[in-house]
Prior knowledge:
- By secondary structure, the chain is an alpha+beta fold.
- The protein has one domain (about 55-285).
- Helices cover about 25% and strands about 30% of the residues.
- Strands 4, 6, 7, 8, 9, 10, 11 and 14 form an eight-stranded antiparallel beta sheet that branches.
- A hairpin with a 7-residue loop joins β12 (about 210) and β13 (about 220-230).
Amino acid sequence: MRLTFERFSGRIAVTRRRGLVVALALAAPLVALGVASPALASLKLKEEFLPFADCPLASASVCLVSTTTSGEFVIDHKTVPIEVPVTLQGGLAGESLYEQPLLGAADGDTLSKTPLTVPGGLVGIGGLGGEVTATAELAGPPSSVIIDRWNLIGEKTPAVTLPIKVKLSNEVLGEDCYIGSDSEPIVLHLTTGTTSPPAPTEPIKGSVGNRQAGRAKGKIRYIEKAKLVDNDFAVPGASGCGGELSSVIDLVLDLDVGIPATPGESTAIMEGTLEETSKEYALKYLPKPKKAKK
């Protein structure tokens, strides 16, 4: 009996030791997770703030990023679908919800120069030069873009005043082919509400979209599925297309596209996301710029 009891007691001791080892093994990763979670949370916050990396923090109180992911741009006869993201970014000098000029992006890329394919090219010249792309560019400085956040959330006009020119590109058109210019821009008065085009053009409606709660723990105001629209803008004729042949090609382009076009003959529909944050959060969570090497 004694021998049997001693052996049994030994088994109990061994079992207890093994149980303790297992418990410690299970607890170790949980402890490590508890220690690491603040660091992981901070990393996630920094990732969420990366879209504001080009905010002009030296002069801005508010950082803004608008990303258009779908929609279309119609100039009379031609429809160009937006199938590649187009970004408008920068900042605002004050916290006011009412109209303010946009402060340009820190790297100068306020409106991304995103080429969009023109379906079917252009009659009379598409076959010679292949695919034709259209790229919207700012017509004037970033301050010519006016942001009215009160109109944006209130579905009033305009929420965004955006003067642009459209560069058309292929081998034949050259590097200076534009519809619109700095002196004669295409001025969009984009709204999340309902447009008021001249008759017989029917009004179209935008949308303020859906606000996401809790993004970056409430530090980023984020709206998805926003829809900004306008169909009450004029479009000038083309200029500078084809180099020395511009007098001919400009005319061919005008006839094919249907320009100059009066208000009500063209449409802009821009759908995507809108996000903003305050300067204090951007300074806290954006990566610090690297010091230049001497």
